[in-house]
Amino acid sequence: MANAIFVWGLAGAEGGRVLLRIEDHDRVRSRPAFEADLLEDLAWLGFRADEGPVRQSDDDAPYAAALERLSAESLVYGCDCTRRQIDAPVYSGRCRDRGLPLTNDVGWRVRLLGRVETFDDLRLGPQQQTPAEQCGDLLIRDRLGNWTYQWAATTDDLRQGITLVIRGEDLLDSTGRQIALARLLGRREPAAFLHHSLVMKSPTQKISKSDGDTGVRDLRRAGWSAARVIGHAAWLAGLQPAGEPIECSDLVRLFGQSTHA
Known about the structure:
This protein is an alpha/beta fold.
């Protein structure tokens, strides 16, 4: 909910267009019912995209084509490590020089150099990350044949011409990795990034429907209007001092012309 407020509000303030992308790259966990509920909630709230929805599962070819580019430069290798063998936040590179073929029963990883990635988050300011030290060589396709979030999102941002990525602070660490991947894929200028605050139920836990927290549909059944739901969420996200109802079309006033929250 907070993400929708930031995306549509900032797009309106900056004169941008919203692309609605369904990131169902993990075909094991994704369900058509989840997508249907999401789209219905957005429509009821008044959030309408300029393009989309575009589903990652609709076309495998762009991710495979991007893979060919890196494979031709010997940057991709097979990895048969299990989670138990890795058991660390940083992949050790155990399979880097084993010469495992890119078959369907192994994971596929991209070699990362130790480059420091610097970028200016439009809300949080200057950032510096070293992906090779944060996570090691990136997994881009798992052993079940699913493209990973990092790979699918980076490939899509490049081919769809995305110039501003708006997402929660919990994904801040992904940014350096995606900038590094995008450079390997030939992107000269990375997209701009803004990581917004999260709606929290405690200092360490964000609100999550999967945890049984109250969602849009619960509030709708309780008689809340769309404007009341949006206003309450905007208050929880720190965008206004009280939970004053606000229509989706009026969100731009929370951000102002050419400013960032």
